């Protein structure tokens, strides 16, 4: 088959692969605002892992992309009155993960998980999670520590809140310009799209978007409250070999029966 006949087929295959990858595995997101500076800059394109949270929930310190709840005001400046061709181009670009994000897509850092008690700040401007002060070297510290009358996100200071079941408390690294859980409320875990993995573009900013280990010293909510919780992980570790052995034995028996019948 001549190349000119193969080219359309190759383009269709490439497009379908891009859509599949974007839908189920990985997606590129454009950073439209300075709310995550200096970790992420305006114009960065970040690759987001869309699979990881199928197996576990987000943890403190991770940077996530999520669909903002209905009450969240958008941070980017997408033109909702754009023309037909502009909207068409944006739709196609969104399918393959190269367009700017929708006005309801947000990228923030997870500060609190269900059951956590979060507040800010001490005299050094540190947040508290379950009674533990957190030193955040990645935060831009140019916002006021005073509580504003309108309870806006311009101030870092807020009273203690408890993260509800199935929800996350998220904040931007540039607290002065970030519209986040301080003023917009908590985020449902079900609305999380994925975990930010690497800055892919521009090339001079290539690098991983690592989870911050400053949250490792935070105790689980139940431990912080002084209550006991069951520890299913060790039990599962003991039972797992038995379950695996039983599954392998069952497979061998099934194969043996099939061989005898054949």
TrEMBL record:
CDD domains: S26_SPase_I. It catalyses: Cleavage of hydrophobic, N-terminal signal or leader sequences from secreted and periplasmic proteins. Its main location: membrane. InterPro entries: LexA/Signal_pep-like_sf, Pept_S26A_signal_pept_1, Pept_S26A_signal_pept_1_CS, Peptidase_S26. It is a single-pass type II membrane protein. It is found in: Cell membrane; Membrane. GO terms for cellular component: plasma membrane. It comes from the Bacteria. It holds the Pfam family Peptidase_S26. The keyword Hydrolase applies. Keywords: Hydrolase, Protease. It is an enzyme of class 3 (hydrolase). One of its GO terms (biological process) is signal peptide processing. Its EC number is 3.4.21.89. Belongs to the peptidase S26 family. This is Signal peptidase I. It comes from Catellatospora bangladeshensis.
């Amino acid at each position: 088959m001549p190349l000119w006949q193969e080219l359309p087929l190759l383009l269709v295959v490439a497009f379908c692969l891009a859509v599949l990858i974007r839908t189920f595995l990985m997606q590129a997101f454009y950073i439209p605002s300075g709310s995550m500076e200096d970790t992420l800059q305006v114009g960065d394109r970040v690759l987001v892992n869309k699979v990881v949270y199928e197996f576990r929930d987000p943890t403190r310190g991770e940077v996530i992309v999520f669909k903002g709840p209905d009450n969240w005001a958008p941070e980017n400046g997408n033109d909702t009155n754009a023309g037909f061709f502009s909207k068409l181009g944006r739709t196609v670009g969104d399918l393959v993960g190269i367009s700017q994000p929708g006005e309801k897509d947000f990228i923030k850092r997870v500060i609190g998980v269900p059951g956590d008690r979060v507040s800010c700040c001490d005299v050094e401007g540190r947040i508290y999670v379950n009674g533990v002060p957190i030193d955040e070297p990645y935060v831009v510290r140019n916002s006021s520590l005073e509580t504003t009358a309108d309870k806006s996100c311009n101030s870092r200071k807020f009273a203690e809140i408890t993260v509800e079941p199935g929800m996350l408390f998220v904040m931007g690294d540039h607290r002065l310009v970030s519209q986040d859980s301080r003023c917009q409320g908590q985020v449902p875990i079900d609305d999380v799209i994925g975990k930010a993995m690497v800055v892919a573009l521009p090339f001079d900013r290539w690098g991983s978007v690592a989870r911050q280990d400053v949250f490792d010293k935070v105790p689980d909510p139940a431990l912080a409250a002084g209550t006991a919780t069951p520890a299913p992980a060790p039990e599962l570790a003991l039972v797992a070999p038995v379950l695996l052995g039983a599954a392998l034995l069952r497979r061998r028996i099934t194969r043996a029966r099939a061989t005898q019948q054949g």
